Amino acid sequence: MHLITLTAIGEISDISKLEADANHIPPTAFRADIHETDIHVVANDLVDKIKRFGMFKFTEEGAAALAGGTGGTSSQELARQLENLFYASKAEAIRFMNMVVSKAEELFAGESRCLALASPCFVLGDIHGNLKDLLSHGSNLWRQSPFVNHGRYLFLGDYVDRGAYGVECVILLFCLKILAPNNFFLLRGNHEVKSCFSLYFLTILH
């Protein structure tokens, strides 16, 4: 049996082996009061909503639900919910995403330009708006939770363009950074430079 100590936002800070008689430790000894801030609640909610979005977009069951509706929800209403990431309105979704972007910017500003990451570290290449692959990475590499592990994840940039879900990919990664800032690290690729992004964006418009 092991005792796992968590920080205020759920990151593992220590794992220690308990002695044989530790079975007699009262349950309250294993309980920790985690005081989440508003932004952590928002980030966690957005992660759940983007995963749900992906379920409808990338699975056969989701496609069937989109075609015929599900649980008393019409296909038209479900499509509207997907467009708003399951928020009441697009304006509400944008408001919460702006909160995530502001917090992520604050975290990035506090990091060194040269990162020194300890092993184990998983390096992930260009995402390019491929939300299906990003969600697949999550289900394999941080299956239970983004912060209940000792791994570190380094993303090499190029999160947008080419694929259809650049916004969702960026917001999901920013949420993971907020929830587990010592586990997730994001570099800026050339597609995160305004000149390159503008070129692709204008190409799409035309």
Tell me what you see in this structure.
The chain has 206 residues and is mainly alpha-helical. 47% of the residues lie in helices and 11% in strands. Strand 4, helix 6 (166-179) and strand 5 form a beta-alpha-beta unit. Residues 20-35 and 202-206 have low confidence and may be disordered.
Summary keywords:
mainly alpha, 206 residues, globular, 11% strand, three-stranded parallel β-sheet, single chain, two-stranded antiparallel ribbon
Distance between the termini: 61 Å
Widest sheet: strand ordering: 3-4-5
Helix content: 40-55%
Q: What count of helical segments does DSSP give?
A: 7
Sum up the overall morphology in one term.
globular
Helix/strand order: EEHHHHEHEHEH
Structural class of the helices, strands and pairings?
A: mainly alpha
Low-confidence stretches: 20-35, 202-206
Mean pLDDT: 76
Radius of gyration: 20 Å
The counted number of beta strands is: 5
* Biggest sheet record: 3 strands, parallel
**How large is the share of residues in beta strands?**
5-15%
Topology summary:
Blueprint (H helix, E strand, L loop, with lengths): L1 E5 L5 E6 L20 H21 L1 H9 L6 H9 L6 H20 L11 E4 L6 H11 L10 E4 L10 H14 L4 E3 L7 H12 L1
Helix pairs in contact: 1-2, 1-4, 1-6, 2-3, 4-6
In short, what is this structure?
By secondary structure, this protein is mainly alpha-helical. It is built from 7 helices and 5 strands; from the N terminus they run E-E-H-H-H-H-E-H-E-H-E-H. The protein has a 3-stranded parallel beta sheet, with helices on one face.
